[in-house]
Design goal:
There is one protein chain. The chain is mainly α. The chain is built from 11 helices and 3 strands; from the N terminus they run E-H-H-H-E-E-H-H-H-H-H-H-H-H. It has a 3-stranded mixed β-sheet with strand order 1-3-2. A hairpin with a 4-residue loop joins strand 2 (67-70) and strand 3. Helix 8 (168-202) packs antiparallel against helix 11 (246-256). The radius of gyration is 19 Å and the shape is globular. The model is unreliable at 23-33 and 156-163 (pLDDT under 50).
Amino acid sequence: MVVRFLPTAAFEQQVERSDTAGTAAPAGSGAPTDPQQAAELRALGVASGPIDLGAASAEADAASTVGYYDDQTKALYVEGTSLTPYVRVTVAHELTHALQDQRLDLSSLDRRPDDQQQAISALVEGDATVVEDDYRATLSAADEGAYEREAADAGSPAPSSGAAGYPDFLGDQGDFPYSLGPAFVDALHDHGGDDAVDQAFRDPPTTEAQIADPSRYLDHVTAAAVAAPALPAGARPLVDLGAFGQVSLADVLGTRV
């Protein structure tokens, strides 16, 4: 693995290139960018009016990202050369992704079905966040204070509704792997230690419900098959058929109820 320390302008350009390529770039990257997906969000009632999702995602990434591992280039990119407490904690998280990739091949997970990717992301980011939190717990009181100040300046780990009109729904989707993923990984570890976590990378979770309730994954409870409703005459689907997860459904209903 190569580690590249880049000046701010070069780092932000690298983040943008990774976003465009759809690689394993920083939190929030890879957001939908085409008008068809924007139309889907409007149809769900979670967005309205013109939406430039690509610009919003890029804006949020540039503001909040100080380092990330790219599983395509096999490189860790870090902004600047100052290893402050916040940067060190971020690097601990991203080095975990590098280790995941070396031992368990992250790119193979990218080839899983699209409707499984949110659950896989929770596994990948949850594992890295557990390591990040363990490393952060070793910081001195002074370094912890510096970390908290830097974190407040950097903003949230995923795009928020304040970023160029970014819909709350997508902000919640971006938060999901980091908010529920660590508890899922902790449950795996409690069940069978590091071997159970490694096994989950080989046989990853398939639904958001398995992340929200890890016992579903451990008990091999999978999603029920649901027949697609018939389309009215002259209508066409906005997207390919696929699963709509438990947490995503709750987010959509939460915007209306």
